[in-house]
Amino acid sequence: MSRLAPQLGLVAAMLLSGTADAESILYCNDYNVGTDRMGMALDGFESAHDIMRTTSLGSCDSMIGSGAWDLVIYAVQNWGHSSPQLNTFVAGGGMAIMQDWTSDGGRASAFGISWSSTNYSTLTISDSRLSDGMWTDVVSLSNPGWGIYSVSFNVSSGDVIASSSYSNAAIGLTNGGRTIVNGFLTDTISDISLGVQLYTNEINILLGGCDADEDGYER
Fold first, then answer.
1. Of the N and C termini of the chain, which has fewer Cβ atoms inside 10 Å?
2. How many whole angstroms separate alpha carbon 16 and alpha carbon 25?
3. What does the pLDDT read at residue 10?
4. Helix 84-91 to helix 57-66 angle, to the nearest 10 degrees?
5. CA distance 160 to 197
6. What does the pLDDT look like over 22-31, one tens digit per residue?
């Protein structure tokens, strides 16, 4: 028997294991004025996960209702839109990242927050999982041309993991650690590389790409 056979079998098993661990991600973002940092972060997950992208929020909601997604990323950037399937997905235990300049009440309720003031320009990270690989905990935002480019909020069910310059939440980890709310659009973090790293860390927090911290969440 060839000495290579056991090694080839091990490689095959590793490849099959990697395929089995691949997770399905749906990314919905209706428009960007500047560079989409979340989209760039997702590029880094393409080789390990199955990623579907759409610029239609209407199509996105239909896709949520008809598919089995491990993570939904829902970015309301340009148009107001209701999201009954997203809200149902989250209520049923699904993992999601959401940001919404329209301050929609249905999404706020599903994600355990209440919207507050608009257009803050800095946020301060308070969770080391979120700042992993970043050289600063203070992140500047800039407006590429939106009327409203950031919305602070209060967290009613979960943790504030980054604070806005208005002293309430800029990023919240809610629904028992299953969902993240971002209070800013995906093209507004001033330093593009910081934005990509921040969004990468958010995805890893939800998909378990980090070590567990003392509270039991994945790091």
1. N
2. 19
3. 39
4. 40
5. 19
6. 899 999 999 9
Burial of 110 (0-12, 13-18, 19+ CB in 10 A): buried
Report how far apart the first and last C-alpha atoms of the chain are (Å, whole number): 43
Tokens of residue 55, six digits: 């610029």
Say if CB 30 and CB 75 are below 8 A apart: yes
What are 206's two structure tokens?
């939800």
The full 3-state SS of the chain, as one line of letters, equals CCCHHHHHHHHHHHHHHHHHHCCEEEEEECCCCCCCHHHHHHHCCCCCCEEEEECCHHHHHHHHHHCCCCEEEEEECCCCCCCHHHHHHHHCCCCEEEEECCCCHHHHHHCCEEEEEECCCEEEECCHHHHCCCCCCEEEECCCCCCCCEEEEEECCEEEEEEECCCCEEEEEEHHHCEEEECECCCCECCHHHHHHHHHHHHHHHHCCCCCCCCCCCC
For the segment 82-92, what is each residue's pLDDT rounded down to a tens digit?
999 999 999 99
Distance separating alpha carbons of residues 6 and 10, to the nearest angstrom: 6
Compute φ and ψ for 45, nearest 5 degrees. Answer: -105, -5
Which token pair is 33? 């004025």
Model confidence, pTM: 0.86
Q: 87, 35, 77: which is closest to 57 by C-alpha?
A: 77
Q: How many CB atoms lie within 10 A of CB 192?
A: 14
